[in-house]
Amino acid sequence: MRIVILSRNPKLYSTRRLVEAAIKRKHEVFVVDHLKCNIEIEKKSPKIFYKGEYITNIDAIIPRIGASVTFYGTAVIRQFEMMKVFTAVSSQALVRSRDKLSSLQILARAGVGLPKTVFTNYTKDVEHVVDSVGGAPLVLKLLEGTQGLGVVLAETKNAATSVLEAFNGLGARVIAQEFIKEAGGADIRAFVVDGKVVGAMKRQGKEGEFRSNLHRGGNATIIELTDDEERTALKATKAMGLGVAGVDMLQSSKGPLVLEVNSSPGLEGIEVATGKNIAKEIIRYLEIHVE
Predict the structure, then answer these.
(1) Which residues form the ATP-grasp domain (predicted)?
(2) How deeply is 270 buried, as exposed, middle or buried, from its count of CB atoms within 10 A (0-12, 13-18, 19+)?
């Protein structure tokens, strides 16, 4: 196959591993910076122009689109779809996954367990928002935040109302979410490829930190999912329409609760923690569907 990896940096761990896995399985692979693609829209003749030439005869793409460039990255994926190229992550699924509010609504409708969540359009009744998720402590999240940025743990009702009022004053959209104390500052990431969990890790936040993101100094260890956790990860991925996904869950007394379904999950944390070749699984997924 001829495979394009849409990535802004060929030196990133995830991009490098996908290139290595594709070459090892005897495929041609090209790393293309999606922000440098020109999209040519014409009746029945969609084209992509990149670095002085048209991209042609591509069998499949693997999008690695950063949150800050979702709009243009999605447009490039859509153009490849119009050119009848298979994509590991569809343009529609990427858009759904990047809209935190919409994705939570989709997951709730599909019957996926979630922490109780409240979204408001700059209401002045911030105390009611706090009470609606079970009072303090509670978690406040910016809708546009990534990698743990824009996430605040409000330990008292006064702190929560102050933060909500401050966010409202800045015109920032925020969701309030119940705090799952029994999770102990840890979460689980299940890596799903083509409807199967191919690896799972438990991420523990550093001492005094309730966010477990590896970018924020957390650590990861391999974990074997319970049947309930595996079912939840697969149901969430299916609801979002993703072929490749990282499903972040909390272990709670009510069972697994999904925090987020990531459409461009990094490979480094999961491969290091589990010792599994996740990049190879993604390439095999392309092989099956292109054939």
Answers:
(1) 104-287
(2) buried
In a domain, 97, yes or no: no
DSSP letter string, 127-139: HHHHHHTTSSSEE
Please state, in angstroms and as integers, the Cα–Cα distance from residue 207 to each residue in 189, 218, 269, following that order: 19, 9, 19
Same domain, 168 and 218: no
Q: Please say whether the beta carbons of 58 and 49 come within 8 A.
A: no
Range of the domain at 49: 2-88
What pLDDT, on a 0 to 100 scale, did the predictor assign at position 269?
Answer: 92
Query: Do the beta carbons of residue 204 and residue 185 sit within 8 Å?
Result: yes
Q: Is the dihedral of CA 49, 54, 59, 64 positive or negative?
A: negative
Q: What distance in Å separates the CA atoms of residue 37 and residue 18, rounded to the nearest whole number?
A: 21
User: Whole-angstrom Cα distance, residue 261 to residue 257?
Assistant: 11
CATH number for 29? 3.40.50.20
The total number of structural domains that make up the chain = 3
Q: What is the pTM of this model?
A: 0.89
What letter does residue 261 receive in the DSSP assignment?
E
Cβ-contact 251, 188 below 8 angstroms = yes
